[in-house]
């Protein structure tokens, strides 16, 4: 019966193991590096040296890649995501999990190097630490400044500066020291600007050789005996977990109202911050009504207390009208029910920010229409100064004023990370275009509560373009009438909103100024104005925005296609996919 | 946006491309530029020869191009003094058609494989850097295009593939060509938007089909811009 005993024994060990695993604390960190800084290699090395990679994964990449024969190209361990991206699958942030004897880790990682701000902003918003990579052979680049700035804005307390590729510079202590001095100055300037100092730790590493990533460099002879400090992993294991949500105020965004029958009505969601107990008084926003918590319901039992980040269902002592997106908060320390806000914004879309354009603002479980009413400044990362800017381009960081078309209950980001963070979504493409952190919130829209019309904003050129599918322009056509009719028909067929003015015998012929006035209105309204004149039978002349083409009228199909070409070239039609072989 | 504003924006973009070229084109002959003589490629060629007049320009001659394309290629090569290499498939058009029939009708992928992919990859493998005029908005398959990426050729060799015009729109290309007074392939004036082999290039527009503005075809990539599978 020894086998049974052995089995029971093992059962016990597994139970112990699972308990131990559960009790290990969790550290979330994000990574950021510029192109070719070796971010993939570093993560690959971290996973490999902590035995977090399966053998078949290692086998599948052995002998491939760009490293010397016999070495493993660790970047390939993380590059699977890149391949997925090339197939057109959009991945915003990929989370990787690994654990050591001391701690569990989640890495927020993003494929594609130009999306690094997305990585930082969406991945780091919940991170305890951020690893910023600097290529030792290149020194501190503008990207490194940007990464550090975003980490500071997001109030990530620990920044681990991994000075990589030390092997390429002969493990030069002086070069490492120079980068550290240089970057510490930058970090101080950033802290002065954002008001949020970070604790920086500098580690000289070679991700390729594995020095100071998991194992101290002392293990490989000759490499960096001058660095006495811990390896990157040792640092990650020893950092205090920064998530101290217990001293924040209670915030509970309602994700769902549960009504299985008429005896039960509960509000399900995840506690964003703070602690709640039955009997506590709460206020519901935006209505402002109050109630007491009667029960905290979970799957298997009711709780005596619950704290972030637990997901629970709350039952209140009396009926209130509450729906998804509402906020249940502790009666003390009320959030602001905001109609307007100031925020730091990290722009991450190829299309630049368009002030006064309608975006969707997603805050906790709530989505409301909003627009940027003004750009207060843009951060010049090279000089670390603020300057005026008409827009924010991809990877730009700035401060903006926002108008919300419906009020939402918010906290300032510096007081409560999850209640002060939001993202902006482009309603046309559904892409996440920016990550934001609220720095000030106002109860009324700019211009006062009674001036609600001001909050709706003027229709922008971008919105017109999105509606019509093209920009405004004036196309002048002169040639055989039948062909011009066919051209207009073909434009109409592809959805262009045309507005035709026949020149022949028209009032406009006598009033060129009037024609000009009308066509510029057409153009500004986003319509495709056609100014048409009958011409000779053999050629069609088409002109628009400074381009003019003369076409052979006998080849009708070619002539029509050429007019479409012209609209594409001049930027009136958006470029679309085409069948080019 | 006014014409002057567009012009100013395009000038900024031109400067950015010039900066990339100055940084990347070493003058040691290890950087090549593949040119189909379509607008974006010709624009990039013009900018590249400003930096390095003798940069190797590779033209893929499938034997099926429009007569206009050949004439235009010869004219530009002569006027600009290009260091032009014409890449030829293993078999001539006559040989291939005698052996396999009209592959572009029966098996266009195979035809592209034989006449484009094979000779091009073979040639590019001899260089360290491969410059292309690819743009993201040319096709859905190119939306994830990066300006700078490693590209694995069959056989495992990697080259650095650069697409300095990745962000450019059709409008940008035309304004830039207008500004730099670059004469363009006359086929554009006949309504073609993307010009390849004659049998596989059609007008993008059918006025009776409202969706023809979206120019979907049987396929959109010949294969020279698709990386060899890594497994």
Concise overview:
The complex is a heterodimer of chains A (581) and B (231). By secondary structure, chain A is of the alpha+beta class.
Model description:
The complex is a heterodimer of chains A (581) and B (231). Chain A has 581 residues and is α+β, with helices and mostly antiparallel strands. Chain A folds into four domains: 17-238, P-loop containing nucleotide triphosphate hydrolases (Rossmann fold); 245-330, Translation factors (Elongation Factor Tu (Ef-tu), domain 3, Beta Barrel); 336-458, Elongation Factor Tu (Ef-tu), domain 3; 466-569, Glutaredoxin, CATH 3.40.30. Mean pLDDT of chain A is 81; it is low at 1-7, 83-91, 445-450 and 577-581. Chain B is built from seven helices and six strands. Mean pLDDT of chain B is 85; it is low at 207-217. The interface between A and B is large, with 46 and 58 residues. Chain B: Residues 32-202 form the Phosphoadenosine phosphosulphate reductase domain.
